[in-house]
Amino acid sequence: MAQSQSGKGLAVVTGASTGIGYELAKCAAQDGYDLIIAADEERINLAAANLKDFGTTVDAVEADLSTLEGVDRLVERITASGRSVDLLMANAGCGLGKGFLDQNFGEARKVVDTNITGTIYLIHAIGNQMRSRGQGRILLTGSIAGFMPGSYQAVYNATKAFINSFSFALREELKESGVTVSCLMPGATETEFFKRAGLMDTAIGQAKKDDAGEVARIGYDALIDGEGDVVSGWKNKLQAAVANVTPASILAHQHSKMAEPDSGTK
Question: Which pTM was predicted?
């Protein structure tokens, strides 16, 4: 059944229970968009309750977006709303620390399935709808981590390299379609990511990080303006620029200093 429309359009945000995703949803709500938000945890319902304070409609979907079934559940909810998606913010993602061979492979695979498979499956479904009507904006959350080999975070960094690259390619493919594709590439941000990824015993886990609200605002503004990519924060811009001219072997060594567990467990 179609929902009543209180906003100026519909925004879909994944990974929206906390962190950058929640802040992206808040930007859209403040801008007058109705929301469908999704995450793989019950806290998505609390996020929805808080976002309703901005006066737009908010529908929460608890689904595992690392699975095709979970993405299908979200798409079905979007379809049931009877509305077209104006803004798609594909932010769902997870990480995993420690050496690759010491990781549980099921957990490593979930990083790939969440960050890549679920993300592009959702974009394929919603992007086709946007292209059919010649209108829509897509934001992917990449990372400056995608510019460097991620020693002790190898799978995560590789997935973000994929997302960064994918976003540029898709933007080119859709340049005459009326659909824009933007990529937000933040650095280390104050969210629950590092705790969930088991990185709290590392230099990067303990370091000062960027504010999630500020990062999200930069990404949201880029989405609305139709910018192709945006690196949040001048330090991250510098790091990204240096990474582009530094040999991969050196980048891998530098990353190990940030992400190697202090305990020595590899």
Answer: 0.87
